[in-house]
Every structure is written in C-alpha cells, then in structure tokens.
Amino acid sequence: MREAISQLKRERIVAAAVDLFYKQGYSKTTLDQVASELQVTKPVIYAHFNSKNDLLAEICSRAITLAHESLNRVMAQDTSVTERLETVVSDFLTAVLTHQPHAMIYSREEKELAQEDRDAINALRRDFDHRLIELLSQGVTAGEFQAEDVQLTALAIGGIVGWAPVWFRANGRLSLDEVVSYMVSMVLAMVRAKKSRKSKGPK
User: Fold this and answer.
1) Taking a C-beta distance cutoff of 8 angstroms, is the pair 90, 184 a contact?
2) Contacts of 96 (CB under 8 A, 6+ apart)
3) Is the dihedral of CA 162, 166, 167, 169 positive or negative?
4) CA–CA separation, 51 vs 67, rounded Å?
5) Residue of 21, 72, 50 lying closest to 116 (CA atoms)
6) HEC string of the chain?
7) CB-based burial label for 67 (10 Å; 0-12, 13-18, 19+)
8) Can you list the domains of the chain with their CATH numbers?
9) Is residue 155 within 8 Å of 174, Cβ to Cβ?
10) Residue 72 or residue 193, greater confidence
C-alpha cells in the first residue's frame, strides 16, 4: 500500500511538471511552481526526484521506455514476425500518442537534459532501432516481408512514429485507435507483409 501511494504521488508530480513544461517551457518553470500546482511543499517533490532535471529525464524517457518494454515482450512471443511487428508498431505509437506532451517536451528540451540522462535515453533509442532491424531481418528471412534495405526501412518506421505527436490531435477526425490502426497498416504495406487478421485501416 505504501509503495502504491508513493507511486501515485510520483505520477501526480510528473503530470503537474508535464503540464507546466509543455505550456511555458522547461527553463521558465520552477519546482516551486510545480509544488504550487500540486498544493504541496517543495520537499514533497524532492522525496521523489532529486532535481528539476531529474524530473525532466523521467518525462523525456517515458515513451521510449514503454516502447522498449513492449519490444522485449514481443520478441519473446511465439507468433509470426508480421504479428510481432504489428504489436511493436501499435504499442510504440500508442505509447507516443498517449504521452504526446512528453514527446513534445523531449523534442523541445532534449538539450536541457544532463549528459548522463541524454546518453541513457539515446542508448535506449539505439537499442530499439537495432532490435527493430533484427525483427525486420527475421521477417525477410522468413519470407513474410520484402525489404531491400532493412536499416533504411527501420529508420522510416521510426520517422513515422516520431512525427506522429507533432500532427496528432486527440479531438481530430480520427480517434487514437483509428490512427494507430491505419499507421500500422501503412508500415505493413511498406514491408509488403502478408496480410494479418489484426490490422484494419479506418473506415
């Protein structure tokens, strides 16, 4: 119970910081403002984060951490490579779009991260890229995909996912689920995958 309460407090701090960093920028936001937003004292924040920069690192790493965890689970599944690619892209897009402000803060404030945190996030991103290349290579070997250059294809997939938070609107023409489904179908078309029962584009 104590751990659950601590995690809830941590998430409230992150949510308040995301709101302020997103609206007014990292440099113009103070921990006093975050504390005021939560109606707590600053020591409450320090009980969970060592500094404002530590809080920024947590925010910036959320989407890629979730995507990495999904990739680890998917790579261990006994399913077709096509189904694994669908799940990876779907989970990554969902993570990015449900953490849209986090992704935008990362793109704007990456330079503010401590070098150690920036290196850790970039290492996760590189590892994700390498594992995605591995997955695409498995699909080509299995005859499920056609991709002459799997490295370039992996970069293109990363670009599709990475650009999505810039244009996606939660109250837009398509829902999050419809956008994710359509984008997954685009990725499968890109690798000329065999049809899967899971993928459906918007009606």
Assistant:
1) yes
2) 63, 67, 103, 161, 162, 164, 165
3) positive
4) 25
5) 50
6) CHHHHHHHHHHHHHHHHHHHHHHHCCCCCCHHHHHHHHCCCHHHHHCCCCCHHHHHHHHHHHHHHHHHHHHHHHHCCCCCHHHHHHHHHHHHHHHHHHCHHHHHHHHHHHHHCCHHHHHHHHHHHHHHHHHHHHHHHHHHHCCCCCCCCHHHHHHHHHHHHHHHHHHCCCCCCCCHHHHHHHHHHHHHHHCCCCCCCCCCCCC
7) buried
8) 1-49 (1.10.10.60), 53-190 (1.10.357.10)
9) no
10) 193
Tell me if the pTM is above 0.85: no
Question: For the segment 104-162, what is each residue's pLDDT rounded down to a tens digit?
Answer: 999 899 999 999 999 999 998 899 899 999 999 999 999 999 999 999 999 999 999 98
| Percent of the chain whose predicted confidence (pLDDT) is above 70 | 96
> Which position has the token pair 């689920």?
177
Q: Which two tokens stand for residue 189?
A: 């078309």
Is residue 190 within 8 A of residue 153, CB to CB? The reply is yes
Sole residue written with tokens 């023409």: 173
Q: Residue 162 burial (CB < 10 Å; 0-12/13-18/19+)?
A: middle
